[in-house]
Design brief:
The chain is of the alpha/beta class. The chain is built from eight helices and eleven strands. 33% of the residues lie in helices and 17% in strands. The strands form two sheets. The chain has an eight-stranded parallel β-sheet with strand order 5-3-2-6-9-10-1-11, with helices on both faces. Helix 1 packs across helix 2 and helix 7 packs across helix 8. The protein binds 2-amino-2-deoxy-6-O-phosphono-alpha-D-glucopyranose (GLP). 2-amino-2-deoxy-6-O-phosphono-alpha-D-glucopyranose binds next to helix 5.
Amino acid sequence: MHIKVYPDTQSAGRGAARVVAALAADKPDAALGLATGHTMIPVYGELVRLHEDEGLSLARVKTFNLDEYAGLGKGHPDSYYEYMMTRLVQQTDLAEENMNVPDGRAEDLEAECRRHEEAIERAGGLDLQLLGLGKNGHIGFNEPGSALDSRTRTVELAADTRQVNSGDFRAEPGAPERALTMGIGTILDARSILLVVTGWEKAGILHRVLTGRPDPAVPATALHLHRDVTVVADREAMEEHFEKEGDRGVEFVVSGPR
Ligand code: GLP
């Protein structure tokens, strides 16, 4: 794992966005695996800025989101579909028809999960998978206990995940009980992985992820099974790791890439 540490959340977001932008410049028809959540807000903010100010084009990129809540989808204000629409599609030249978010409103959710896997395959596999980290170590909605070779499927959300995410629900209070998520095996099939972790609340779990062996109890430890993983973190998220392990092998990006 290559660990890049930025001074703060905003510069970490910019750093992560630069990785995505560099790929899109190098391979304009790249297949990108995307994530949602608070961590990604500065990442997409910077991609929008790069589009507006520096000519970044996402017109030919295909995107595949990690997850969606069961029962939510296009048009629902709290869906990940609408998150992607407002934060990226409506502000860049990324085409809505090139964006693939599993549909939480599909009649047959298992068939929808298979369709998402097949769409990724048809695109030739993911060039890059962007990931956030749940406080309980989840990636996508692969909660603790998820098999390390799991594929896209419907899952029960952990009680702590529903609690953490409950603040995101404006239409009706409380997070749904179920979700659709790419599996850990699906994620590990991506040719490269970029894990973005910011804030002191993630310092404990990030230390466990960085030092742990692959273990379903902490799903993100599965990333040790992949040979091209970059972790972009801010200093706060690295604090516990620095305390316990020091900073050997870590790259410090002193100022943001701007
Ligand atoms: C959420 C999402 C993940 C996200 C993670 C971290 O529940 N399902 O895709 O990466 O948990 O979220 P946040 O960035 O808001 O901390």
